[in-house]
């Protein structure tokens, strides 16, 4: 009965690690207190998997911030600006790299493939010195062993680590990161030697970049790396784990030819075509296949009967003793434990499985494969699958017809962006380099208490509205005092930019404790899209009109766009498969989702039109996650971008020229999709940019003509660090070197929800001061 879990959530069922981290960062608790919480969490996770019967239990998948940053610490690859002098890397250096500090900015943070998890990007160059500087992987293996649990230590593989890195500041962009392979492998050898000495018999290397479109040089690096490690790995069983997409045929050929590797892990949910590859290309004799048949990225209960059929077909190829039942990827991308959902609708709850339940599913499949099928468990699962297929609450034919009618049309505003910007400027009369923020303002403890008490019916609606109105008034006053040009209402009524909208749309369900780590201590609670989506009533108009009545300055109506709502939710996986030939070539996750996205777009379109009718002249439709949803394989990019961009245009195609449409997008790695962004036809786009401004600016240096307004973020809101006026002015000047003055906006990187007012006020003060300084310089230069 061979079962395996790729990885497990770190935050804890009730976000214990989040609160411990934030207490430590605030100086309210000690390092020992934080370590105690972490130790208890790890022990409970290992015990849970052992009790469930999992054979191959992972260790070193826990992290205080991020597993890639852990690897950077292991390799001692600390950028010079953190003044690390060697030795074991402690919390001070580690968290400075992740979050920055009073004097030094944080390292860049970007999305982990196409998930909503963020990792800290390594900064490497020809002068980077590597040394074994964090013994975390070995220490956690020993920690588990002391508890009686023999684990599989997990490391980010050496080639993926380098391919996910970027050249350090001052290093040429063309620097060959893979040239550092021979420099980091000695550290890997030291780690492997210590793990062997500690008693490890298996080791797992996560090499997710193997699912990308790699060239021959990159594939050769895998061969070189694992050939070089072969003697060090002698005596160990070596699992190379891939996930998030199909593995290409050439990568499969490279991987299965590695002599030092004894087992291969494949995602058979998002990489369904890999199954065909295993069957058609053959599987190496005597090697293990870790079959990822239980979805690690969604919360739907596994169709156990279907998975068992898949496993039985693989068993005929691989052999009974060499097939291991696994998750498609780490379970860190799903919620922790369904047991904590005491108020969730009982019918919908029966359709779900969180991380704890997926562990049980994996082992149940392994037992069934070994001839010990739990008929009662499989029967209950079959009944839940049938209930979901037949439930009338899932289907709305009117919504389906409206969404289907959108496919053949091209929804665009009637005039071009240049004409619209002229009309908007006449109405809004904004200064050069207009200033704004992205939407949210700090969510105080008191504000959260008010929302919580209103939801629990401990205060009346009148009391709730009064409290929110007071908060909006405070935020408006602060912005007017700071002299910001286009205001926001601060979103005090919103718990989350997706959950807030989902709660007011049909077809969504919500959890109480379905938290998923986004980055560091930041957790989100994704809504569950279980059926067809529509908008019964206006969602934001009341609050936006209230806010606009408090000021004569433009007040942005704040909406979350359809692609972001889709990508930041747990999405249904039960729509009928379309029979169009070009769709059949696409990854499962992308050829089902666009129908739901069109439904959400129609709902947001109604909201946009109601805001405009209510007198809101500037409407921001955030598509923070548009880039994140881009498929990992280039052959699938065009189809995704087509329906994603179309979905955005649907939301605002009917507004007047004088209504200014903004959007916000996270992360500036847009070089490959800049033409799709232009095709969105927004009037103004603000972009998260401060940790990676050169990536964005290089797009415009290379001659891309962009006529709409653009606001590359001028300071990092993911760090408590307050930038100086001079620093922000320098950023603005760099942007003006490649962007026209009349299209540049000045704004923070992202929303301010996670920051404190003691950080926000001085940072925004410096942002406005820097803008006025540049305006003066521009005026004197004329």
TrEMBL record:
Record key words, sorted: Amino-acid biosynthesis, Metal-binding, Methionine biosynthesis, Methyltransferase, Transferase, Zinc
Chain sites annotated for binding L-methionine: 438-440, 491, 622
Coiled-coil ranges (or none): none
SUPFAM superfamilies, per the entry: UROD/MetE-like
Chain ranges of the Cobalamin-independent methionine synthase MetE C-terminal/archaeal domain: 433-772
GO-annotated biological processes: methylation
The protein's enzyme class: transferase
Pfam families, per the entry: Meth_synt_1, Meth_synt_2
Active site positions: 718 (proton donor)
GO MF annotation: an example: 5-methyltetrahydropteroyltriglutamate-homocysteine S-methyltransferase activity
UniProt-annotated location(s): Cytoplasm, Cytosol
Primary site of residence: cytoplasm
Residues annotated for Zn(2+) binding in this entry: 664, 666, 675, 688, 750
Pathway: Amino-acid biosynthesis; L-methionine biosynthesis via de novo pathway; L-methionine from L-homocysteine (MetE route): step 1/1
Residues the entry annotates as binding 5-methyltetrahydropteroyltri-L-glutamate: 18, 116, 522-523, 568
Reactions catalysed, as given in the entry: 5-methyltetrahydropteroyltri-L-glutamate + L-homocysteine = tetrahydropteroyltri-L-glutamate + L-methionine
Domain Cobalamin-independent methionine synthase MetE N-terminal, first and last residues per copy: 3-317
HAMAP family per UniProt: Meth_synth
NCBIfam families documented for this protein: met_syn_B12ind, PRK05222.1
PANTHER family assigned to the protein according to its UniProt record, in alphabetical order: 5-METHYLTETRAHYDROPTEROYLTRIGLUTAMATE--HOMOCYSTEINE METHYLTRANSFERASE (PTHR30519)
Name recorded for this polypeptide: 5-methyltetrahydropteroyltriglutamate--homocysteine S-methyltransferase
């Amino acid at each position: 009965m061979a079962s395996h879990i790729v990885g497990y959530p770190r935050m804890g069922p009730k976000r214990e690690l989040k609160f411990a981290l934030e207490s430590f960062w605030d100086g309210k608790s000690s390092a020992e207190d934080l370590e105690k919480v972490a130790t208890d969490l790890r022990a409970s996770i290992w015990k849970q998997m052992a009790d469930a019967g999992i054979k191959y239990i992972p260790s070193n998948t826990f992290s205080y911030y991020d597993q890639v940053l852990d690897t950077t610490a292991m390799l001692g690859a600390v950028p010079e600006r953190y003044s690390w002098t060697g030795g074991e890397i402690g919390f001070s250096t580690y968290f400075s790299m992740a979050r920055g500090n009073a004097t030094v900015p944080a390292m860049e943070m970007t999305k982990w493939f196409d998930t909503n998890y963020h990792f800290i990007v390594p900064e490497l160059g020809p002068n980077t010195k590597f040394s074994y500087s964090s013994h975390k992987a070995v220490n956690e293996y020993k920690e588990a062993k002391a508890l009686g649990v023999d684990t599989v230590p997990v490391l980010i593989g050496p080639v993926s680590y380098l391919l996910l890195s970027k050249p350090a500041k001052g290093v040429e962009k063309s620097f060959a990161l893979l040239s550092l392979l021979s420099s980091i492998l000695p550290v890997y050898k030291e780690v492997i030697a210590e793990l062997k000495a500690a008693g490890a018999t298996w080791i797992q290397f996560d090499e997710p970049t193997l699912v990308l479109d790699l060239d021959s040089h990159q594939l050769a690096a895998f061969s070189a790396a694992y050939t070089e490690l072969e003697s060090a790995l002698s005596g160990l069983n070596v699992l190379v784990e891939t996930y998030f997409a199909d593995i290409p045929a050439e990568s499969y050929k490279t991987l299965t030819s590695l002599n030092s590797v004894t087992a291969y892990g494949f995602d058979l949910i998002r990489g369904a075509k890999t199954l065909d590859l295993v069957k058609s290309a053959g599987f190496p004799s005597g090697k293990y296949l870790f079959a990822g048949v239980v979805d690690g990225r969604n919360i739907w209960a596994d169709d156990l009967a279907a998975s068992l059929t898949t496993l039985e077909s693989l068993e005929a190829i691989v052999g009974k003793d060499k097939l291991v039942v696994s998750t498609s990827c780490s379970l860190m991308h799903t919620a922790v434990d369904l047991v904590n959902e005491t108020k969730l609708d009982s019918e919908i709850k029966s359709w779900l499985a969180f991380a704890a339940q997926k562990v049980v599913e994996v082992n149940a499949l392994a037992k069934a494969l070994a001839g010990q099928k739990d008929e009662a468990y499989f029967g209950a699962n079959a009944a839940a699958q049938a209930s979901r297929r037949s439930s009338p609450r899932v289907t709305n034919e009117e919504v389906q017809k409206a969404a289907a009618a959108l496919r053949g049309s091209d929804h665009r505003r009637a005039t071009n962006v240049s004409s619209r910007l002229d009309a908007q400027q006449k109405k809004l009369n904004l200064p050069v380099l207009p200033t704004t923020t992205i939407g949210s303002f700090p969510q105080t403890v008191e504000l959260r208490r008010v929302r919580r008490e209103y939801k629990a019916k401990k205060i009346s609606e009148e009391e709730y509205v009064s409290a929110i109105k007071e908060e909006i008034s405070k935020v408006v006053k602060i912005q007017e005092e700071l002299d910001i040009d286009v205001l926001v209402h601060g979103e005090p009524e919103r718990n989350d930019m997706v959950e807030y909208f989902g709660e007011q749309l049909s077809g969504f369900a919500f959890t109480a404790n379905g938290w998923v780590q986004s980055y560091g201590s930041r957790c989100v609670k994704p809504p569950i899209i279980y059926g067809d989506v529509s908008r019964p009533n206006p969602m934001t108009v009341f609050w936006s009109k209230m806010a606009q009545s408090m000021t004569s300055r433009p007040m942005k109506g704040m909406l979350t766009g359809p692609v972001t709502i889709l990508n930041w939710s747990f999405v249904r996986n039960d729509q009928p498969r379309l029979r169009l030939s070009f769709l059949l070539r696409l990854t499962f996750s992308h050829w089902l989702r666009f129908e739901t996205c069109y439904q959400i777009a129609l709902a947001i379109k109604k909201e946009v039109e109601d805001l405009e009718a209510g007198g809101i002249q500037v409407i921001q439709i955030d598509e923070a996650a548009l880039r994140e949803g881009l498929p990992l394989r280039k052959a699938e990019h065009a189809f995704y971008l087509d329906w994603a961009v179309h979905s955005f245009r649907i939301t605002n195609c009917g507004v007047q020229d004088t209504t200014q449409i903004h959007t916000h997008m996270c992360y500036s790695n847009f070089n490959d999709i800049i033409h799709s962004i232009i095709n969105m036809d927004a009037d103004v786009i603000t972009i998260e940019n401060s940790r990676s401004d050169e990536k964005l600016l290089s797009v415009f240096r290379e001659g891309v003509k962009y006529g709409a307004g653009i606001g590359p973020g001028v300071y990092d809101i993911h760090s408590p660090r307050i930038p100086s006026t001079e620093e922000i002015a320098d950023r603005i000047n760099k942007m003006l070197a490649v962007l026209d003055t009349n299209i540049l906006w000045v704004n923070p990187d992202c929303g301010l929800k996670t920051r404190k007012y003691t950080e926000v006020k001085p940072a925004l003060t410096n942002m406005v001061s820097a803008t006025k300084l540049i305006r003066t310089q521009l005026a004197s230069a004329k």
